[in-house]
Q: What sequence folds into this?
């Protein structure tokens, strides 16, 4: 390049100081700053989305953990419940929940008088601020011990979801203009009862432990039973996916010869990891329910489907942790006379155990939040009302699962269920965060760096 | 559940076998383990495994094969003239199975006794109503031939289960006895056990193949049934999706495919720029502290279950968009009728995919050799110029692979579109209209009471198969590109 003269160079700097930037440098620096800002912007958008999501979930979900209750003294009138006075349980059972409604109406009348509340509402309309389950609650109480008939007992009834919404600010006098199930007068009455200390919003343990309720009674719906369903599914996944996944990984990592069969298995596993989850649902419906005639909506079937879905995740992480055990361990075991199988099972596997466990927990967490395959095997669309009695029933009787229950609530028409759905998500996320934290702790605490 | 008890029984037997085998081996060596060929535990394991493994294998095969064999047997019992002209043999058989199942449930719940089942007559007692009481809905009244076939179906299943229990228990005992008899101090127990364990390991590994075969076969069969009932030309080339449960539906995949691709496109338009820029910043600019703080936080977005995103679309993003574009909204335009729309689902899905794109691209950008960057910087390029004209072109194939993987995720995503996209199948370019996708239709055709004899239900399998092929193709292509790219720099 000796013939390159200064004049021929494409340089544009003709005189001037090196300390003052020329236009082109300034443009390039601006472009640099812009590019950097795009990057920061992208990360900020991502983090902002995370914050928005968390704030939305917390702000809309916490409402489900408090519930409005009405405290009421009910006189269990003998002439309504046990006309003959024999305390014969069969005779008392004949009185349906309708027979208990007058008691509640009467209780409201006396309560209103005692508290000095003046209202134009009829007792029947006063009682309408309670949940539809109030009469049944009363009846169950009486049937549990008929000797209480004739006494006056203080009850804590669930308030109607509209009243609950009023206390939580979801329902206002404007929003109920076209609502037939509650009127502005009733809300006035509720205000008076609040002043009298009869209506109170308290912590609602039933949301966490209770069962789902029909779409007429959002105030009584809870997550408990579907949590049990999820628990049984996770048991199935753990019992099946962990041993099968570990066995498959040991074979592929330690024993498999390099041949076409191994290649086919490897390709299959990596492809299964990317198959949409709904396809596993179709498989479950066609094979487990339609062909093998396992019961619809059973956690066993859900567990089997989720097992197939989680296996690739577990296999991939198990193989990674087997691979991280240095070959010197195997060589040493073989050197002192262990067979290959003994070297793997007695030395490599225990050393890889923390990594395997971490991968399994992450796989379980993924399975716990999965919804789509559960829709196809029928874990939505019904009311999971009773917790199963026993392990066999827990596996085979119809149940829901946490994400399926949330979906079910989100589908219902009454907005009161939306609050439950967000609340359910909080529970689901608490489980997921706990599991993932456990996995991180296990990894930090036990994983060995070689 | 008799199978569960059978398995427990087998486990108990083989536990006993373990201790018996070990004791026998030790005894044959006069109580001195040093005289044995293998460690005592291997003799026990040998007995236990030979009692357990073949029996469990037969049990599994039996459970899979029995329904098929009984189906053929009962189907051959159905006289040709008992099949109505408008139905096929398969459809009648599915009726038979449903009635048999219903009777089983009724007996199980105590609504009917075995004697009452024997006394049921198709004409006189209304089986449909009785079965309806226990929650088994039948499509039509039960004809006498079907009832007879259902009875023999039940009888055959019952006998089959009994024979199965006997065979499996017998096999287990035989295995135990055989290996117990062979247990001796010179028996090479460890070699046998290790060979057996290796076979089990291979079996576990081939489950992946079995699953794939299961997925493909189950969908292929039902898809074939579907194309027997419905014209395949309408499915692939028709223009309308209008399922009608009284029959004569138009079931074309094209409008669904359009909705799926449109929503996926929007999701990619959201996630690819954000994810890519985030990856570039994290790998090229960010310091160690920022990286260790921002990367895990972004990846939380990927760990959130899709149901949460679905709810977010349905209850937050959808209403928000409706407030902006809907009637009486912030813009004063009436472009959006409801909360569900292509844009709702697409944006939320895009948020979900951000970490997916960013962590994949991050790996790929990090794989570009540092020497290439150094070369570019040494020539006086700024960092952004280096990224744009050196790093990105080098990483491009990998990034394309990552985008394809993200696209495959978007196409197969279910909950977000079920809750956020709507249910109307149509060709439209307006992102504010609600549209439906393949996954949404699979869910809606297969939930609730499904009748596996109607094309409206079976179409879901054809949709599922298309989805499977589509995502598989994208994945294979993406993995191929990524692998090819990796080789380039390794």
A:
């Amino acid at each position: 390049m000796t013939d390159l003269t200064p004049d021929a160079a494409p340089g544009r700097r003709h005189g001037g100081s090196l300390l003052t930037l020329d236009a082109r440098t300034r443009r390039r620096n601006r472009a640099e700053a812009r590019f950097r800002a795009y990057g920061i912007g992208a990360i900020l958008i991502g983090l902002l989305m995370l914050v928005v999501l968390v704030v939305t979930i917390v702000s809309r979900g916490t409402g489900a953990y408090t519930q409005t209750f009405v405290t009421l003294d009910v006189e269990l009138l003998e002439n309504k419940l046990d006309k003959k006075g024999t305390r014969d349980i069969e005779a008392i059972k004949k009185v349906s929940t309708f027979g208990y409604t007058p008691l509640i109406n009467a209780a409201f009348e006396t309560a209103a008088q005692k508290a000095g509340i003046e209202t134009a509402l009829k007792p029947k309309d006063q009682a309408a601020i309670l949940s539809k389950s109030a009469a049944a609650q009363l009846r169950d109480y009486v049937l549990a011990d008929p000797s209480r008939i004739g006494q006056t007992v203080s009850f804590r009834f669930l308030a109607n979801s509209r009243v609950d919404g009023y206390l939580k600010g979801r329902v206002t006098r404007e929003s109920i203009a076209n609502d037939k199930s509650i009127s502005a007068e009733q809300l006035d009455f509720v205000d008076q009862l609040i002043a009298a200390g009869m209506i109170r919003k308290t912590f609602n343990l039933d949301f966490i432990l209770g069962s789902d309720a029909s779409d007429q009674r959002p105030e009584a719906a809870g997550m408990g039973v579907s949590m049990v369903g999820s628990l049984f599914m996770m048991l199935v996944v753990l019992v099946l996916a962990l041993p099968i996944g570990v066995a498959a990984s040991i074979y592929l990592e330690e024993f498999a010869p390099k041949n076409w069969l191994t290649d086919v298995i490897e390709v299959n596993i990596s492809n299964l990891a990317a198959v949409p989850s709904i396809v596993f649902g179709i498989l479950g419906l066609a094979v487990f329910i339609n062909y093998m005639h396992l019961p619809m909506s059973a956690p066993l079937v859900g567990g089997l489907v989720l097992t197939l879905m989680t296996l690739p995740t577990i296999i991939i992480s198990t193989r990674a942790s087997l691979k991280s055990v240095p070959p010197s361990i195997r060589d040493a075991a073989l050197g002192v006379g262990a067979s290959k199988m003994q070297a793997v099972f007695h030395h490599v596997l225990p050393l890889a155990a923390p990594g395997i466990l971490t991968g399994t927990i992450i796989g379980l967490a993924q399975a716990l939040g999965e919804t789509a395959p559960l829709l196809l095997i029928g874990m939505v669309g019904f009311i999971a009302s009773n917790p199963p009695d026993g392990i066999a029933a827990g596996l085979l009787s119809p149940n829901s699962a946490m994400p399926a229950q949330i979906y079910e609530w989100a589908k219902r028409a009454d907005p009161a269920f939306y609050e439950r759905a967000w609340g359910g998500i909080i529970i689901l996320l608490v489980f997921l965060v706990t599991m993932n934290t456990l996995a991180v702790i296990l990894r930090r605490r036990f994983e060995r760096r070689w | 559940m008799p199978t569960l008890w059978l398995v427990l029984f087998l486990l108990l037997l083989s536990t006993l076998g373990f201790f018996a085998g070990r004791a026998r081996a030790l005894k044959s060596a006069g109580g001195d383990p040093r005289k044995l060929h293998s460690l005592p535990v291997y003799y026990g394991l040998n007995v236990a495994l030979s009692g357990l493994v073949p029996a469990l294998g037969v049990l599994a095969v039996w459970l899979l094969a029995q329904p098929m064999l009984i189906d053929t047997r009962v189907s051959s019992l159905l006289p040709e003239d008992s099949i109505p002209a408008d139905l096929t043999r398969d459809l009648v058989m599915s009726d038979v199975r449903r009635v048999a199942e219903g009777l089983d449930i009724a007996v199980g719940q105590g609504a009917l006794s075995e004697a009452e089942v024997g006394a049921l007559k198709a004409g006189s007692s209304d089986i449909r109503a009785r079965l309806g009481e226990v929650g088994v809905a039948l499509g039509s009244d039960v004809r006498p031939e079907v009832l007879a076939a259902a009875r023999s179906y039940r009888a055959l299943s019952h006998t089959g289960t009994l024979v199965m229990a006997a065979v499996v228990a017998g096999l287990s005992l035989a295995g135990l006895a055989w290996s117990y008899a062979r247990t001796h101090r010179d028996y090479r127990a460890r070699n046998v056990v290790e060979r057996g364990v290796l076979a089990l390991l291979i079996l576990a590994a081939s489950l992946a193949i079995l699953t794939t075969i299961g997925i493909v076969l189950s969908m292929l069969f039902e898809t074939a049934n579907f194309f027997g009932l419905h014209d395949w030309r309408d499915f692939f080339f028709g223009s309308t999706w209008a399922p009608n449960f009284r029959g004569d539906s138009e079931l074309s995949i094209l409008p669904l495919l359009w909705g799926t691709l449109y929503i996926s496109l929007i999701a990619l338009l959201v996630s690819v720029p954000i994810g890519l820029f985030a990856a570039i910043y994290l790998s090229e600019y960010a310091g160690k502290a920022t990286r260790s703080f921002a990367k895990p936080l972004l990846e939380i977005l990927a760990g959130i279950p899709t149901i949460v995103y679905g709810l977010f679309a349905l209850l937050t993003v959808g209403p928000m968009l409706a407030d902006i574009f809907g009637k009486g909204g912030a813009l004063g335009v009436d472009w959006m009728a409801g909360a569900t729309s292509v844009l709702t689902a697409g944006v939320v899905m895009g948020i979900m995919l951000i970490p997916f794109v960013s962590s994949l691209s991050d790996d790929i950008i990090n794989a570009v050799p540092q020497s290439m960057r150094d070369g570019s910087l040494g020539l006086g390029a700024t960092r952004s110029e280096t990224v744009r004209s050196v790093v990105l072109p080098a990483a491009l194939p990998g990034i394309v692979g990552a985008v394809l993987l993200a696209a495959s995720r978007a196409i197969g995503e279910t909950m977000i579109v079920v809750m956020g996209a709507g249910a109307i199948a149509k060709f439209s370019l307006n992102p504010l209209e609600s549209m439906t996708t393949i996954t949404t239709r699979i869910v809606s055709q297969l939930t609730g009471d499904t009748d596996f004899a109607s094309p409206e239900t079976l179409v879901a399998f054809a949709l599922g198969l298309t989805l499977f092929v589509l995502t598989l193709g994208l994945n294979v292509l993406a993995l191929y590109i990524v692998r090819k790219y990796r080789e380039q720099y390794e």
